From TrEMBL:
InterPro entries: SAM-dependent_MTases_sf (IPR029063), SAM_dep_MeTrfase_SAV2177_type (IPR006764). The keyword Repressor does not apply. GO terms for molecular function: methyltransferase activity. The keyword Methyltransferase applies. One of its GO terms (biological process) is methylation. It comes from Streptomyces nanshensis. It comes from the Bacteria. This is Methyltransferase. Keywords: Methyltransferase, Transferase. The lineage of its organism: Bacteria, Bacillati, Actinomycetota, Actinomycetes, Kitasatosporales.
Amino acid sequence: MTANDEIDTSRPHPARVYDYWLNGKSHYEADAAAARRVVDVWPGVVLGAHLNREFMHRVTRWLVEEAGVRQFLDIGSGIPTEPNLHQVAQAVAPETRVVYADNDPIVLQHAQGLLRGTPEGRTAFLQADFTEPESILGSPQLRETLDLDRPVALSLIALLHFITDERGAYETVHALMDALPSGSYLVVSHATADFDPDLLTRVAEAYQSTVAEGQIRSSSEVSRFFEGLELLEPGVVVAHRWRPEGGEAQSDVTDAEFPVYGGVARKP
C-alpha cells in the first residue's frame, strides 16, 4: 500500500458504511456514525443492504446454473461478506473464475478473504477505480484470470448510484461491456427515489456529503445502462422481485422499503 492509499479513518467510505449495515467488523466510528444517520432517515436501509446481497446471490446462482457463465468481473466488490460472489458461484461450478475490483484501500487489506476459492477455479483482486476502465481491463490480475474471448458476467452491485453522469457512469458501463464478448452479462443494482421523491435529499443530508457523491436514478435512467443488451425478464424491477427463489418475493417488504432496482441483461 502506498502513502497515497493510506486509509483515512476520519471520513466515512461507502464500502465501510455498507459493512456496518451488514453487521461486519471492518469499519470505523466515522463510518458507523454515517450509517446510523442514514438509518434515522431511511429505517429500511439495513434490510435493504441484506436484500441487495440476496439479489446478488440469486443472480450469481442463475448465471452459473442456467446461463452457464464461468467468469465474473465484480467491480465495487466491497469488504468481503460471506458468502461472497465467488463462493456462491464456485459452490455450483468449482471451476468458476472471479476477479474483484475496488478502489478502497481497506478492501485491499481484506483481499485474502476474497481470494480463498476452490482449487479448480481462480479468484483475483485488483485495486482500481470504476471510472478508469482501461486500468481494470488491462490489469495483469484480470488478464491472468479471465479469458476475454469467453463470456464474462460484469457485476455492478450497489455501485452506480455513487457515480454521477458527469463522471461518465453510462460511458464507463458501455466501455466495459464493449470489451466483453457476445454471451456476456451485465448485472446492476441501483438505489432509486421513484417511490419516495425526497429520499435523495434526506439521505444526502444524513451522509452530510462526506461519504461520496452520487446520483439516485429513476427506472428509465437505470434501464439506460442496459441499452444495446437483451434485458432478461422480468426487466428492471425492485431487486427482491427479480426471480425470487420459491417464486414469490417477500410479501412483507414494500417497494418503498427497498427502493433498489435490479436487472440483468445479455450481450447479443
